[in-house]
Amino acid sequence: MICKDRAMHRVAVLALSGVYPFELGIPARVFGASWDPDIGMLYEVVVCTLDGGPVMTNAGFSIGVDHDSQALVDADTVVVAPVDLGWPPVWDQPTGPLTQALTRVRSDARIMSICTGAYVLAAVGLLDGRRATTHWRLAEHFQSLFPAVQLDPTVLFVDDGNVLTSAGASAGVDACLHLVRCDHGSRVANQTARDCVVPPWRDGGQAQFIDRPVPEPGRTATAPTQAWALEHLDQPLSLSELAAHARMSRRTFTRRFRQETGASPGQWILRQRIELARQLLETNDLPIDQVAHRSGFGTGASLRRHLHRAIGISPQAYRQTFRRAERLAQRQAEEEEARSE
Length: 341
Prior knowledge:
By secondary structure, the protein is of the alpha/beta class. It folds into 2 domains: 9-196, Rossmann fold, CATH 3.40.50; 223-320, Homeodomain-like (Arc Repressor Mutant, subunit A, Orthogonal Bundle). It is built from 13 helices and 12 strands. β9, α5 (139-145) and β10 (150-151) form a beta-alpha-beta unit. The longest helix is centred in the middle third of the chain and has 27 residues, at 170-196. The radius of gyration is 21 Å and the shape is globular. 39% of the residues are buried.
């Protein structure tokens, strides 16, 4: 994803007829909760319709907005909210007005869709030849309409340069947090997640759905072991050691852990180590080998391999990216303070 360097940037959310109210509110909730103590609020979020008039939601009430499609022209990030296609799904949105509106988006802006918002981007040709995702239940219908799109219905979101598509509902939260992390680093993204009371990081490659039973109330037996593992990520943490901490057999622990987290113990630990490594890279000048040791990867080579596999960038390049953004943000804050004096 192309990351924005501006300390404050404008997000425009496009609402169409049949919009899902819950998903429509996600960008404002996530970006609106993102702030930095030295800068203040980091995003301005506006909601628009094509003509500036009210639109009917799929929940039986209409919503009014203060902006028309001109808001898309002025935006740094454009988010297309999902619409209800019914079941069986029917795509009947007016492609002409959508094309006219979205072709006015700046070439350096990011465009993101949530769930069926991918239909909008595909209908105007923005996803041709690109990887993308949408709700897994609509994958076959989507692919029949837009065969030129490289659809992956198994993931939470797909980051493809200046275009990001996400799956349904909560995956939109993950995608928005991904952009916050890209723009301002783990510290701000984690604080935003805490304010919204959501998980701080689910990588885009995580499965949309997992065929597993819901854990019974009171049976989240691996939570203490998860907390203990987070404090010992710099150690080997074998399956036997984790199971022993939870006072379970390896087989029982693995089954319970997957039921409660949706991942195997090894997959979960790897994600936590990547998260810790990213925080260390962003917040201090430790040599790469020390970052690798503290995050449990052992060697710099191992960290480079896993980080590149997870986010497509080396540890050094990742650190430089966020240091540049940090310096720019600091300079902009100083300029704002000087102007206010």
